[in-house]
Design a protein that fits this description.
The chain has eight helices and no strands. The relative contact order is 0.21. By secondary structure, the protein is mostly helical.
Length: 251
């Protein structure tokens, strides 16, 4: 399910809870709405609100951390690609095949992470023919002097780093936010909003306030899910570092 669809469902649950509370206010006998009853409900909702705030902050921090980690890995991948290309240039004309493979490898990664057409999930995988061929081509280089031997060792080290970074991106491409967390959080917030409606007067100002608050909560959930999918949706990790690297590889 997309982040937007989940956000809409959360909004429907939360605002629906507030409306249920407003309806119940007119149905409950007066003793249920006494000052003593209100005080007990407020204490319970205060505890629930504290737990909901803690879970919400943890989910935002977790999603932001995952987003930043993958953004950093994309930048690292781009930097390593440019550095490897410069090393191969200094190695000599014998490395032309390796440079061509490196460019194809970067294009493949770009096409997988940021598909040019369609909206669906990106098909990140480890089975990159270009990556395997690039490693084998670098291994097959035959250095003729000490400088080339040193450059080959550096190139071999960097291509291993490139493979490791790509493996991390693939391993982290799934969701990191457990679905039960979102379900429980939505339930808590729905109950809290129901208590708001239960003791609030039924007028347009109250309904508008509850509507805006429900929108804010669902927007927070939407933000969490967007950050948790760095290569999908509206808040994608920027492809600029890899595209800039590709432009350097074309020279």
């Amino acid at each position: 399910m997309s982040a937007l669809a989940t956000g809409v469902i959360v909004f429907a649950c939360v605002f629906g809870g507030a409306l249920v509370g407003l309806v119940l206010r007119g149905l409950l006998p007066e003793p249920h709405l006494s000052t003593e009853s209100k005080d007990v409900v407020k204490l319970g909702m205060g505890l629930l609100a504290t737990m909901a705030a803690l879970v919400l902050s943890l989910l935002i921090a977790s999603a932001k951390s995952a987003y930043d980690a993958q953004s950093s890995e994309v930048t690292q991948l781009a930097a390593n690609a440019v550095l490897l290309d410069r090393i191969l240039v200094h190695y000599g004309p014998e490395s032309k095949d390796a440079r061509d493979l490196l460019r194809r490898y970067v294009v493949r990664v770009l096409n997988q992470m940021w598909p040019q057409q369609g909206v669906g999930s990106t098909a990140l995988d480890l089975t990159t023919t270009e990556g395997d061929e690039l490693y084998e081509t670098i291994q097959a280089l035959s250095p003729q002097n000490e400088a080339q031997r040193s450059l080959k060792a550096d190139a071999r080290h960097i291509i291993v780093d490139v493979g490791r970074t790509r493996s991390l991106l693939v391993a982290q491409s799934g969701r990191t936010i457990p679905a039960p967390f979102l379900v429980i959080l939505t339930f808590w917030v729905t109950v809290i909003f129901a208590s708001f409606g239960l003791f609030a007067p039924r007028n347009l100002t109250v309904v508008a306030t509850l509507l805006l608050c429900a929108l804010s909560v669902s927007a927070a959930i939407y933000l969490i899910l967007e950050l948790d999918q760095p290569f999908l949706g509206f808040m994608q990790v920027s492809s600029a570092p890899l595209r800039t690297a590709l432009a350097h590889l074309d020279h």
